[in-house]
Every structure is written in C-alpha cells, then in structure tokens.
Specification:
- This protein is of the alpha/beta class.
- About 40% of the residues lie in helices and about 30% in strands.
- Strands 1-2-3-4-5 form a five-stranded mixed β-sheet, sandwiched between helices.
- A hairpin with a 4-residue loop joins strand 1 and strand 2.
- Helix 1 packs parallel to helix 2.
- The longest helix is centred in the N-terminal third of the chain and has 15 residues.
- The radius of gyration is 14 Å and the shape is globular.
- The model has no long low-confidence stretch (mean pLDDT about 85).
C-alpha cells in the first residue's frame, strides 16, 4: 500500500507498507509527481509500516523515472521518516548525503509529533 496526501502547499504525507510491483510503482510515481506540483521549499513525512523491498519490475520503473524524481526532490528541503525498523531509518538518513538540499531524519512511529515539529522548524537565518 502506498498513499500520497498533499497536506498543504508545503507538505506531502506518504504512507508505505507491503511490497510494490511494477504496476503499483507506476501509479505511485505518477501520484507523487502530480501531488508535489507547485510545492517549493517543502517537507515530506514518510510513514513506513511493514515495508518490503519492491519487485525488480518496480525498481526498473523507478529507475526509468529518475530524472523526474530528482526534479521533484529539489522542491523539498526536509523529509521525516517514521519507522520501527532501524535499517529503514538509517538508509533514509544516508540518502540525505546523496541528495543536496534535502535533510532526512528518522523517527520511530511513536515520535510522529516530534517529526512534525522538526519538519515545521525553520532553519536559522545566517
């Protein structure tokens, strides 16, 4: 299951669980691109529950959409990942190093309010 909700003009909430196949991946990517349109300096909240790696077909679909995904990611400056699996949080935080301008931080699913507060916190003006 993958659900994308546009919360407001700055934030997307993304719920992920289970395993994606190629058909579902195509739908998800289209939905992400559509719902992120017009967002600038945005935030994402990922809620990852019972996640499984996507199928090889789904990965191929994702790779074919990389240019559009990189363009979309530039519209966001923060992403919070809610998960109870430590490895998912670590991978998310590691991705931050490969995506300039996007800070990713992991939280447990019980820390949702802390994650939302972190997303809303504005960086200091230098």
């Amino acid at each position: 299951m993958f659900k994308v909700t546009r919360v407001d003009d700055k934030r997307l909430d993304i719920e992920m669980s289970g395993k994606l196949d190629s058909v579902q991946m195509r739908v998800v990517l289209d939905e992400l691109l559509e719902k992120s349109a017009g967002i600038e300096n945005g935030q994402m909240l990922y809620d990852v529950n019972d996640y499984h790696l996507p199928s090889l077909g789904a990965i191929a679909i994702e790779l074919s959409h990389l240019p559009a995904l990189f363009s979309m990611i530039r519209r966001f400056h923060k992403a919070a990942v809610l998960t109870d699996k430590g490895w998912i949080g670590k991978i998310g935080e590691l991705k931050s190093g490969f995506l300039p301008g996007l800070e990713i931080r992991a939280f447990t699913r019980e820390q949702r309010s802390e994650a939302e507060a972190w997303l809303e916190k504005q960086p200091p003006i230098l």
